[in-house]
From TrEMBL:
Keywords: FAD, Flavoprotein. The keyword Cell membrane does not apply. It comes from Oceanidesulfovibrio marinus. The keyword Flavoprotein applies. This is Xanthine dehydrogenase family protein subunit M. One of its GO terms (molecular function) is oxidoreductase activity. InterPro entries: CO_DH_flav_C (IPR005107), CO_DH_flav_C_dom_sf (IPR036683), Diverse_Substr_Oxidored (IPR051312), FAD-bd_PCMH (IPR016166), FAD-bd_PCMH-like_sf (IPR036318), FAD-bd_PCMH_sub1 (IPR016167), FAD-bd_PCMH_sub2 (IPR016169), Mopterin_DH_FAD-bd (IPR002346). Pfam families: CO_deh_flav_C, FAD_binding_5. SMART domains: CO_deh_flav_C. It comes from the Bacteria.
Amino acid sequence: MFAPFEYAQPKTVSDAVEALKSEGAVVHGGGSDLITCLREHIINATKLVSLSGLASELSGVTAANGGLRIGALTTLTHIVDNPDVNARCPGLAQAAHEVGSPQLRNQGTIAGNICQKPRCWYYRGEFNCIRKGGPICYAVGGENQFHCILGGANCYIVHPSDTSPALLALDAKLTIMGPGGTRTDKIEDIFILPEDDPMRETSIERDEFITAVDVPAQPKGPRFHNTYRKVRARRSWDFALSGLALALAMDGKRVIAGRAVLSGAAPVPWRSHELEQAIMGKELTPDVIDKAAEAAMADAEPMSKNAYKIPLFKGMVREELAKAAA
Ligand SMILES: Cc1cc2nc3c(=O)[nH]c(=O)nc-3n(C[C@H](O)[C@H](O)[C@H](O)COP(=O)(O)OP(=O)(O)OC[C@H]3O[C@@H](n4cnc5c(N)ncnc54)[C@H](O)[C@@H]3O)c2cc1C
């Protein structure tokens, strides 16, 4: 059951800022996650502020200075099909393509994808878990086969978005609009670990909204290797059991610069500094690849039912680095 709510559809960015000032107002993008969150009472809104009236202003992909500006309301389908995204950062197009089903990609926006709520069945179910202000995380000692193996501490969700790890690998920045004006944050800096605040996923305030995602020009090597790999239990729509976003400047088999980000591993898109250190400046030989796979999982702390993720991640890292070397 839904609690009653008002609906506003502002036509300008400043009207949207104004509409979000009322307490209990929340941003409505494509609604593909938000509506379920209202039904499951993990978001209690008295007013939905739809950004759909700003579509002409906040949709689309523009190429600029070797990078890309993606409007917050750009649909995932648009990103999958966009030639500039495919030419400059194919890993982002691959990540958007991995989201849900065609219907969800048609409806879902890039900003909503970044800001969606986690999928833990205790959080989404009728449990007063720590993420809802309750005393404990029910995944500890419960059904934790899809929960995190890194970064858990007091709550063991996994970050659900496929595009966030890809954007983090690309060092993307978000333009965020709110009552105090506009600010720009690296996507890497917005995610909040449960040990810092188990009730928030990002530092974006309730009365703020993303207006654009900027992907900077990527480091130039002789070759830029940008991919997103997602392993899931089913071929139809499903969230990542494990995933890896790579954005690597390569010279032959040697890694010159870049980033590696895990999905399905942690409560935030997990930049694996250990994996990066294991490959940086090195040729991707079988030995280096093996050591990188071990390094990526060195700090993993599985729960009672998700230890399978460790060999899954190691195998996936080996396969993806072997492809980068090829
Ligand atoms: C069956 C199913 C399968 C799915 N599978 C996947 C999957 O495989 N991978 C994946 O990544 N996602 C998946 N999703 C999640 C989700 O539908 C998509 O991520 C979608 O991109 C969300 O975008 P939206 O515009 O519909 O967001 P909304 O539902 O409108 O919003 C989601 C959240 O983001 C906030 N928000 C929306 N726009 C903004 C903005 N501009 N600024 C700040 N906050 C904003 C909302 O307030 C809300 O909290 C799935 C969802 C369903 C229902």
